[in-house]
Amino acid sequence: MAFGRNLAFFLAAAGVALFAIAFLPSFDSFWSSWRKGRKVAEMVVLNATIYTSDASLPFAEAMAVRDGRILRVGDFSTIQDLIGDNTYKLNLNGNVVLPGFIDSHVHLIIGGLQLMRAELGGIRNKEDFVAKVTEAVKEKTPGQWVLGGGWNIDLWGGHYPEASWLDDIAPQNPVWLSRMDRHMGVANSLALKISGITRDTPDPAGGSILKNSDGEPNGLLVDSAMELVLNTIPEESLEERREALFVASRHALTRGVTTVVDMGRFFTGASVENSWVDLSEVYQWADSLGKMMIRVCLFFPLPTWSRLAELIRDKGHRLSKWIHVGGVKYFADGSLGSNSALLHEAYEDNPINYGIQIVDFDWLSNATLHSDMSGLQVAIHAIGDKANDMVLDMYSSVVSTNGIRDRRFRIEHAQHLLPSTAPRFGQEQVIPSVQPDHLLDDAAAAENKLGIKRAHQGSYLFQSLLDGGARLAFGSDWPVTDINPLRAIKTAIHRKPPGFDHAWIPTERVFLDDALKAHTISAAYACFLDRELGSLSPGKFADFVVLPANSWNEFAENPSNFVSATFVNGKQAYP
């Protein structure tokens, strides 16, 4: 009986073995097939201090990436089963990881061009200004334009530059140098002559031609008056604009910026066609060749709203993983530094001046109404308190006419507000797209131009806007200020301009978490990209930065000044 049972067992085992040999793959092949059938990460980040910007899981220590997107975030045990033989393991030994920064307001190609021209940012006296321009002139042949910008007289506390500063050093070259905010510029006498600007040239609507005591143009042009010179400057070549994109993108990556909201080469006095030409000739060209380095969300001039609406109807908002079509933008006023921000009360240092209303508001309201009716997002530049109130009133009227929807209206800058205005942003769901680093240059100027009381009550009201329920979106307005999110975050937290030994308007300082969100998830929300970007969450693009800080406490106590590495689509893009 026992022999029979053993024989039966032996025959059964032999049958199974013969079946396996005949019909099953080898164990190694079977195991390999099983591994191929599951999702194996191409890269995992291990032993990191990951700030996700995702409220459902604020911090993590590991992250798995595949095909440029995040598979999973958590601790090591969470992602362990996603590690395969060929998975790259990035062991960070505690270093802080943040979502890739989103800069909510840049002029990307202009920024790249500025890096290729006379850079006057940070100049602190007339002598250095003249010396810098002299060097630029040496690189030109007679007749070539000398272009540059970034100057700010608040840094040297003296007079505005004039044509007379430039005439002796550039007698055979027309010169145009824009102020840091691009709402004012200075031309030499040759540039004025080429542009046909004389003592008899009237101020254009929405601009000013400044003159000396003899009634002659002194070289300074404000807002729409700049168009008189800009129209005579030869267009940048296609090669220059393409190179500017690459220069700008590489610069952004060094600062941890992986996405920008690009307002284009559009400002008062510039052609509305520039943004459209750059879309086809620069961005889509680079994308077609696989040369894009950072993601861009593009805004277009409001006068071309119907053209944009048609493009979105045909192609959608997402033209590729690199190029997103955003909305439309226009200007309500100028800037405080150029005395053209539109105010309810006159400037303290110029009692007859209330600023400049750049646009006819009937036209602006009508264009905004039709843009919104077509489903477009609208962003309006407003710096002065009156300009902000007028834009908020206009937005409210549009909502009343067109009805409630998720439109995410934006006001770009929102720098100087009446105290009663700040809560309106949250109540009316208007996004304040603000630039913290502007206050580093504006603090002293704001007190001089607005008076201390008015400046302190209404300038850069970040915390008041948050308290009112608004979602802040941080940006740089580069090249007005440098593209540098880590510095902007520090500025928003500490609010200490150069030369100040104390915080400027300390009640408006924000917490680190709010500042980080304003450069990540809230910035993504502000341009309708929060489903793809802004947090290190499963399914989103694997865009992130690595900081030198070795713990969260270290970073929170003293936020880093630079990034150690920038990753886009899960691949190292810098250094």
Automatic annotation (TrEMBL):
It holds the Pfam family Amidohydro_3. Residues 91-573 form the Amidohydrolase domain. One of its GO terms (molecular function) is hydrolase activity, acting on carbon-nitrogen (but not peptide) bonds. Gene3D superfamilies: 3.10.310.70, Metal-dependent hydrolases, Urease, subunit C, domain 1. This is Amidohydrolase family. It comes from Rhynchospora pubera. The lineage of its organism: Eukaryota, Viridiplantae, Streptophyta, Embryophyta, Tracheophyta.
